[in-house]
Amino acid sequence: MRLGSPRRAALALAAASLCTAVPCGAAAAVKLTRLATVSGSVGPVFGMVRTGDGELHLVYPTVISPESGLTGLTISPSGATGAPVSVLTTDWQTNLPGLVELPGGTLETFFGGASPASFNPPSLATMWGLTSADGGATWSTPEDVRSGPNENLAYGSALTAQVSGTTPVLTVPQAGNLVIQSGLGAGVPTYVASTSTDGSVGTVDSALDAGTGAVVAAWQSLAGSGGDYIEQVAPTPGTPELVPGKVLPEQLVVGRDSGPGVFAPYTTDGTHVRLLRYGGGTVAVGRASGVTAAALGVATGIDGRIWVMWGADGGRVAVTRSNKAVTRFEPIQVIETHALTLFRLAGDGRLGPFDLLVDQIADTTPLLPAGLYHARVLPELSASVAVTIIKNKKTHVITSYKLKVTVTDAGDAVPGATVSVAGHTKKTGATGAAKLALPGSSPSKLKLTATAPSYRVLTRKVRL
What we know:
- The protein is mainly β.
- It folds into two domains: 5-377, 6 Propeller (Neuraminidase), CATH 2.120.10.10; 382-463, Immunoglobulin-like (Sandwich).
- The protein has one helix at residues 5-16; strands at 33-37, 47-50, 56-64, 67-75, 85-88, 98-101, 107-114, 125-132, 143-144, 160-164, 167-174, 177-182, 190-192, 204-208, 215-221, 227-234, 241-242, 254-255, 262-267, 273-277, 282-286, 295-300, 306-311, 317-321, 333-335, 344-348, 354-361, 371-377, 382-391, 398-409, 412-413, 418-421, 424-427, 433-439, 445-451, 458-463.
- The longest helix is centred in the first third of the chain and has 12 residues, at 5-16.
- It is elongated.
């Protein structure tokens, strides 16, 4: 949703408090932990929203044959997972739900489904919504939220949702077309995307442009020569834009936490990854040796940054984060998944550390059923070192070394980082630089350590 100043302030406070819960600069290995499983080989998909208190809320389909409903859980600002909560228990034959935080803090989840025989009216296939006023602890009875006949057969459809200002905007594939509904209930405006009128649309994703309040959707279509499209769909339709490169099983999009821009990842060769900005412009993200870009994900970071992830069945996942201007990226991290199958990569990094969510994994160590996995990923630092040698003017003997260490995050200066070399420690200033003086008797090869709140520890060698 579009972030107002109270919500931005609350998220900033949650981010600032992370150092009390996350070992600041800790370099512990990234480990995926299962959050949820379902029967058979079908992994859960989920709706997700980060609320103003820093909690990350998930709602996903629960399949307990022969019934299907919805389950919710939370991930705290420190990365701890809460107990699952029943959102919808009876057999509604649900699919991917959308989840938003409405003005005032109420949660609302939306899904396409058919009401069971015990509900009045039964067997009505449409779009439904239910709310929680207590942070996801309890949920209301489902209500029909469709606008009109375009949404009457939304049963089993994957649905996403955003809030533009105060208006929920729902995107749903309906009879193979992409339908956008702005608002809830009968008669609110609807729109059918122009490149989705061929009966081929599958999974849809959507994102909010925090600078303009516009909602941008992404989907795969066979219209014309086919491909993955992104388009502004609310409050007014925009221009469809074909995402270059290989057609993906699911095209994801994401907006920034503040400022304009909606972004979509793509690859032209299955190895090199780039990021497209809707409306114009691309930037190189990079490549990771041995990591195939079959599934690509993208997520919102802090201070306008964007996270990008990619991987493939049976392989590893590469993760990296942009700078504030989304023009450069940090060093790429590679995470072992032990995966047989890997379908969807998503997450949220609005607090600084990244809550990575990996969908449809069957873990091979030991063999476990498909499920939804979570890992807390800390961003990477970089450091450059300039060494000045100081000599005695008469004897030309080295008396000391002056080091200027500049700590950056994808090119952005990192003030307040702690830099340590050979027992000498300094903090970086506003430009990310710290100056240290070492005695002339220092060894020629030294280890430099740089730490900053909520970043991985950086170590590198320095030659004097």
